[in-house]
Amino acid sequence: MKSITEEAKIENIAVITDFVNSILEANGCSAKVQMEIDIAIDEIFGNIAYYAYTPKTGEATVQVEIKNFPERLELTFIDKGIPYNPLENKDPDVTLDIEKRKIGGLGIFLVKEMMDEVSYEYADGKNILKLKKNL
């Protein structure tokens, strides 16, 4: 397992993405999987940056592990911000016209659709969001 810890700021999304992509590329992951992972990083790390420590800032750790190579990627986001389980929110109704939809929730919905498993736990004062993707 490899990990990176950065201050939870929007400008660090690129740092996290580059770190994860270097691991994906070294393991021969497809461009499609890499794009889906990039979208997930943008959404999850972005939400941590915007909401976890408001109005202050703090750190977030991203762990990357490829198990049973090349079978499964596990991407874990860990922060010590405000406890928040994004999986508790109701999925948006994507059948409605865009003008009739409520704001919010589409990003985590996309992450759940693109990943094979998404789980959340709050343990030891930390938000832990795990994404699993079959490769």
Question: How does this structure look, described?
Answer:
This protein has 135 residues and is α+β, with helices and mostly antiparallel strands. The chain has a single domain, classed as 2-Layer Sandwich (Heat Shock Protein 90). The protein is 33% helix and 29% strand. The protein is built from 3 helices and 5 strands; from the N terminus they run βααββαββ. A 5-stranded antiparallel sheet has the order 1-2-3-5-4, covered by helices on one side. A hairpin with a 4-residue loop joins strand 2 and strand 3. Helix 1 runs antiparallel to helix 2 and helix 2 packs antiparallel against helix 3. It is globular, with a radius of gyration of 15 Å. The mean pLDDT is 88. Its EC number is 2.7.11.1. It holds the Pfam family HATPase_c_2. Keywords: ATP-binding, Kinase, Nucleotide-binding, Transferase. InterPro entries: HATPase_C_sf, HATPase_dom. This is ATP-binding protein.
Tell me briefly what this model is:
The protein is of the alpha+beta class. The protein has helices at residues 13-26, 31-52, 106-114; strands at residues 2-7, 59-67, 72-79, 117-123, 126-134. It has a single domain (2-134), classed as Heat Shock Protein 90 (2-Layer Sandwich), CATH 3.30.565.
